[in-house]
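Re: the request from the purification team.
They wanted to know what the chain is likely to look like in 3D before they choose a buffer screen. I agreed to run a prediction and write the result into the notebook, where they can find it.
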Amino acid sequence: MEFNSILVATDFSDCAGVAFSAAQTLAQRFEARLIVLHVIDQHFVEKLSNHVGKNKEEVIKELRRKAEKDMGQFLQQWNPSGTEVDTLIAIGTPFQEIAVLARDLVVDLVVVGGYGRKGRGKIEEMFFGSTAEKVVRLLPCPVLCIPK
């Protein structure tokens, strides 16, 4: 199997950092394009918008600015060698956006952390599955899930 492009989904957690490191190793080995994606959860945007009394566009603008800053810090921490990466910030339901962008970009491999910043939510995972599990179910390409 050959990988020409690898998509790494990140929520900027340490688990996502470990997944990025694995993807970086594979990208170097296969001379593949490395794409790092962060998805701003649309449900969080709606809740925050209602909570702070701002319209969704303002909230999205602020969250996108924060995500760009967090992406820079994430890459500074996890990419000290400066491997060339493309970065994307999307808004939507995380597992759906990961799947849609992986298909649109025709990536050969998706790499995700086993769990994100929130850790392992037993009840939510039991009934709904983790983002990683949902991505595996949706994509026709291989998905590498890296535990921390």
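For the purification team: The CA atoms of residues 65 and 71 lie 10 Å apart.
Please add any questions underneath this entry.
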